[in-house]
Amino acid sequence: MASAVDEAPPTATESTANAFALDERLAALGGLGLDQLRAEWRRLHRAAPPVRLSRDLLLRSIAHRLQEDALGGLGPAARRRLARLARGVAAQGKPTPAPAPVRLKPGTTLVREWHGRTHTVLVLAGGGFECQGRRYSSLTELARVITGARWSGPPFFGLRRGTRSAGAHAKADRGGDA
User: How confident is the model at residue 70 (pLDDT cuts 50, 70, 90)?
Assistant: First the structure.
């Protein structure tokens, strides 16, 4: 038996057939009775459905699970965010608010050393960045030029939210104060 790693990605014809089969299964759910929906829940979840779940919510949950199985579930970033929210609710009884995004003011200088070379980046008023006399539209674009690899710009320059390094690598140009 071949593993999922050994299988080739589905062709356009297979993808269309899978989408059509999913559409048929979703359409058929509407005609199922409550007992049949509960049996489908048990098949999909390998557990009994919640006793007080209404037919409508049971149907919607099953449809969601079928779509998730066919099309994929949440991405890693969404899973991490949901886990963080759940931990906040467990610890404090309410979700922890997301940290405010890092906002860079024009004139801010970012300094990053990479392979023994120091790179100084100036935040421009129009929202771009300047490094070694060249303008860049994003920090990610600049990080890729510096490293030759796919880096996310904000973490590369130490601008992760909620970390100490965000302030350690950026300083505002205050006219000679350093």
Answer: confident
**Looking at the whole model, is its pTM more than 0.90?**
no
Domain ranges for the chain: 12-71, 108-172
No. of H helices and E strands in the chain? 7, 5
Q: Please enumerate in sequence order all residues whose Cβ is within 8 A of that of 157, keeping only pairs 6 or more positions apart, or say none.
A: 110, 112, 121, 139, 143, 169, 170
3-state secondary structure of 41: helix
Q: What is the bridge-based pairing of β-strands 134-136 and 129-131?
A: antiparallel
In order of 114, 159, 161, the CA distances from 165 in angstroms are 16, 7, 9
Residues 142, 148: Cα–Cα separation, whole Å = 10
**Can you tell me which residue has the tokens 């970033």?**
77
The residue with tokens 């299964």 is: 25
